[in-house]
Amino acid sequence: MRLDMNEVEAVCSDLYVRALKILPPDIKAGFKELVGAETGETAKAVLGTMVENIAVAERTNNILCQDTGIPIYNVTIGRGVDFDGAELKAAIRRGCERSTKENSLRSSVVHPITRKNDQTSCGVRVPIIHVDFDERQETVAIEMIPKGSGSENGSFLQMLLPSDGINAAKRFVIDRVIELGGRVCPPTIVGVGLGGTSDLCMHLAKMAATRPLRSVCSDPEGARIEAELSRAVNELGIGPQGLGGRSTSFAVHVEIAATHITQNPVAVNIQCHSARRATATITPGGIAFS
C-alpha cells in the first residue's frame, strides 16, 4: 500500500476537529462510574455539570474546551506500507495548519522566547509527531491528542535512587496529585512513567495519561502499582474541580521501561477530565475513524 499524503493531510485535519469536539466513549463511561460511586452532594453536582457541558458541546457542535492544546500526532505504521518519512511529517503539519484555519480554531502555540503566535497551531517542532511500527498488514493508524496547558502543567520528573525503592516513587505520585489539587481540572487520568532515561520516563507518563480507561499496564508489576495508586488517589478528598469528594481521578495509569542499574526515574503527567483524542485507521479498504 502506497500512503497517499493528500489523504494523510485530510485525515490529520479532520482528526484535530474530532478530538476537540467528541469526547471518547470510555471517558463518558468513566463519568458514569464516578457519579455512581460518589457520596458527596457537592461532588455529584459538579460531576453532573461537567456531564451536561459535554452533552451541550456535542449537541451544538462546539469544542469541549477552549484550549485547543499542543497538537500531538501518534502514527503507527504496519507492514507493507510504502511511504516517504519527510513527506509524511509535512502532510501531518499541513493537516494541522489547515484544520486550525478552516475551522477558526484558537491557536495555542507560540514561540517560547518571543511568544509570537502564527495562528496555525504549529511552530518549531510542533505539531509533535511520534512514529512507531507494528505487525498489521497495510495499515496506518493516526491518533491525534490535543494536550491542554492546564493538564500539561501538571508534569513532573524525579530521578530517584535505586535505594529509595518503589515506595518513594509512589509517594512522589501522591504528593504531586496533592500539590496540584484542583488546578488540573479533576477528575483526571494520572499518567505515571517508571524507568528509562529522563526523557523516556516523561514520555511514558504522557503515554499513560492518554491511554483509554480500563486499559491495563502490560507489565504485571506496573498493573499492580497502578491499581494501588488508583485507590489511593481517590482517598485524598480532592474531588472534581478540587471541591471535595472521592472523584479525584478516573484512574492512575502506569507505563514502564527498563532503566540503568543506578537509576530509579519516576515521572507524572496528568490529563484533565476533558481527555480528548481521536484516531483514524487507513487501509486499502478506506479510512475508519474512532
Automatic annotation (TrEMBL):
Keyword Protease on entry: no
InterPro entries: Class-I_Fumarase/Tartrate_DH (IPR051208), Fe-S_hydro-lyase_TtdA-typ_cat (IPR004646)
Keyword line: 4Fe-4S, Iron, Iron-sulfur, Lyase, Metal-binding
Pfam families, alphabetized: Fumerase
Domain called Fe-S hydro-lyase tartrate dehydratase alpha-type catalytic: residue spans: 12-280
Similarity field: Belongs to the class-I fumarase family.
Name of the protein this chain belongs to: Fumarate hydratase subunit alpha/L(+)-tartrate dehydratase alpha subunit
Organism: Hansschlegelia beijingensis
Taxonomic classification: Bacteria, Pseudomonadati, Pseudomonadota, Alphaproteobacteria, Hyphomicrobiales
